[in-house]
Amino acid sequence: MTATRDTRDVTLAIDLGGTNLRLALISRDGSIIARLRRPTCVTGGLSAFVDGLGSAIEELRTEALHRHRAIVAIGAGVPGLVNGAGLLHKAVNLPFLDGLNINDLLLATTGLPAVAANDANAAAVGELRFGAGQPFSSFLLFTLGTGVGSGLILNGALWTGHDGIASEFGHTTVEPAGIACPCGNRGCLEQYASASALLTEARQQLDAGTTSMLAETDREMLTAETVGQAAVQGDPLARQLLARAGRYLGQAAATAVNLLNLEAFILTGGMAASFPFIAPAMAAELKARAFPAATKRVRVLPGTLGDDAGLLGMAALAWEKGL
């Protein structure tokens, strides 16, 4: 017989970012009971990082006690390749975590059942359970930030592949002889559709003398948000840059549709704020490159959970772990 959980039980969800740690107490229905944000300790190596994480966890555990809530499990989204057992193969911006088993670390730190997942996978689960993905049983989520992350949902569940590291669509080749990527390949989608790629292309265009209101901003102060704001104001270069990113996303999306016959693509991350300028080009490229029968009903839409998608996804995965 399965034990019935108290409705006041919560999971503790963590977003292990390279700049900030974000933590939240989350109920089974996705309600965020409490949250906190702390700077990530990156200068003191693994020991300092673990100390900082442990301190933040204890702060939320104390909050849970004050609210008479019981934490049943803990989940952490990590920017890197994480297998099904919680082993972190490659951490983005947190190199001292390479080769570490995050599940074991969290269990040792808290004594709670623990689960770790790639942060984009976590966001996909969050949108599936609580956000834009709820109507669909199969979709691909893109996180458009410094890089391009992705999470794949098939038959209503996260698909992680044989070794737990599936769906790295950010490293799909879109230009075979293109820009070198830190992963060791060339022409990866991440080098053409991420915020970093957007800003690199913007600076090159401005340096070449292209007329744009973006020229009024110091080159090093440009952000994806700046480009998005310029696009809203009708700036041709800004709109061109965002449409370019959309076309490359459409290339990768076409491959995914032809392979998996997905129902939808969901865009999240900082660049998703410019969805109206990215999605039309993405959808057009997708329809031009994939089989018409496969694209007839496919949707391209923005996520609805914002920065909380990953936290909510890890909460859902932690609930499964804590059962």
Task: Give a verbal description of the structure.
Belongs to the ROK (NagC/XylR) family. GO terms for molecular function: kinase activity. The protein is an alpha/beta fold and 323 residues long. The chain folds into two domains: 10-119 and 309-322, Nucleotidyltransferase, domain 5 (2-Layer Sandwich); 132-303, Nucleotidyltransferase, domain 5. Helix content is 39%, strand content 21%. The strands form three sheets. Strands 3-2-1-4-7 form a five-stranded mixed beta sheet, sandwiched between helices. The longest helix is centred in the C-terminal third of the chain and has 25 residues, at 236-260.
Features:
12 strands, 323 residues, 10 helices, single chain, alpha/beta, Nucleotidyltransferase, domain 5, 39% helix, 5-stranded mixed sheet, 2 domains, globular
Short description:
The chain is α/β, with parallel strands linked by helices and 323 residues long.
